[in-house]
Amino acid sequence: MKRAFILFAFIGLVWACQPEIDNTRSDYVPTPLGLTIPPSLPQVAFPSDNPLTVEGVALGRKLFWDPILSADSTQSCGSCHAPQFAFTDNGLATSTGIRGQNGTRNSMPIMNLMYSTSFFWDGRAQTLHHQALMPIEDPLEMDDQLSNVIQKLEGSSFYPEEFRKAFGTTGITEDRIGLALEQFMLTFISGDSKFDRFMLGTAQLTASEQRGMEIFNGDIENGSSGPAADCFHCHGQSVFSNNKFMNNGLDSALSDLGLFLVSGNEEDKGKFKVPSLRNIELSGPYMHDGRFNTLFEVIDFYDSEVENNSPNLDPNMHGIRLGLNLSQQQKSDLIAFLRTLTDTTFVNNPDFQSPF
Ligand code: HEC
Ligand code: HEC
To answer: What is d(CA 230, CA 222) in angstroms, rounded to the nearest whole number?
Structure first.
């Protein structure tokens, strides 16, 4: 896996050294982008059916920030996925789509999606290029038709040329819109937080952050010596998510059935995608419906408000649901640790901002 990466980066380098590429020639191919995953994150391959290219990412960036993708040209993807909020919706509990329509779910952060195998809170999209087309036709979000969006893009003064640069031939298709958006979103890699620098030995945690990390990784049932909160079972390792679908016990009566809506299996009722906790300080309000405004509310929930009789409550909640009984200090420590996951290099990266 790693070798493939180095090779990929090397190819990128060779291309970068080539003189001006004449992109009007018939043998033109887009420029491979050698993107590397930071050393504190697991090394994985990007989707092989959509190799990242400089031109593909540039096109994806335009599409992501262009309100032309919505029926009344008022909303872009970036309207509900703002970089300063870790690509969530500007501190809103649930998103407002075009014509002021209210959605029912909290906008999800877009970062490190190379580890995800399905998308949305209920996992209804299997690939990111598929996912990317769904908000466009979602009646509560951008409420357009893809055929109409294609017509608008074809009529633009620059998109036809941008599509040719990205894919080698002219032609604007649904597929290509999805692929370009996927490419751009895959570049949203967050791996330069204080926690990452701590992992690499170039930063130190404060005493409080260190205690918080021990609580986070403390295993209740397997005899942790200090206070333990079992968080790592689901938000583990340096991704801070296992990318599975689970019920963490928010409700005894479910108003949103989560994964069940997609699978139809009884045992999936109440399960939602385990979110990564990276940049969690910036992405509130929290949970699929944005019910908690602050991290203190979240910790209070795990400490003493887990619904024991929530359908399909995950077995990893067995220790937590009995009550964590954390002191105020321990709660603050846990939050101090969560704040070490904030990556300001990531949220301020100029390459992610609107190109318009
Ligand atoms: C009106 C606000 C809104 C707009 C516009 C919007 N999104 Fe979203 N996005 C959301 C919400 C809300 C969710 C969670 C929805 C759900 O789970 O049902 C979400 C989920 C996602 C996810 C899933 C992340 C994950 O971890 O599974 C991705 C990726 C995403 N959006 C990308 C996009 C792209 C690309 C566009 C533009 C084509 C876009 N969004 C437009 C609000 C929006
Ligand atoms: C059984 C697996 C599991 C365990 C254990 C667990 N979580 Fe979660 N966590 C989830 C799931 C699933 C969600 C999303 C739930 C939803 O919105 O319906 C979530 C959501 C969150 C969120 C909100 C994220 C967001 O983007 O809205 C935070 C913060 C969080 N958990 C922190 C913790 C902490 C701290 C602990 C330890 C005390 C912990 N979790 C233990 C599964 C778990």
So the answer is: 10
| Owner of token pair 């014509």 | 99
The better pLDDT of the pair 28, 66 is held by 66
48 CA from centroid of ligand 2 (Å): 31
* Residue 46 scores a pLDDT above 80: yes
Q: In Å, what is the CA distance from 262 to each residue of 63, 122, 252, 268, 271?
A: 28, 7, 20, 9, 11
* Ligand 1 contacts CB of residue 30 (under 6 A): no
What are the tokens at 222? 């397997």
Report the pLDDT value the prediction gives residue 14, as an integer from 0 to 100.
40
Contact yes or no for 334/217 (Cβ under 8 A): no
Q: Whose CA is nearest to atom 14 of ligand 1?
A: 107
pLDDT at 32 (0 to 100): 95
**CA-closest residue to ligand 1 atom 10:** 107
CB 93 within 8 A of CB 84: no
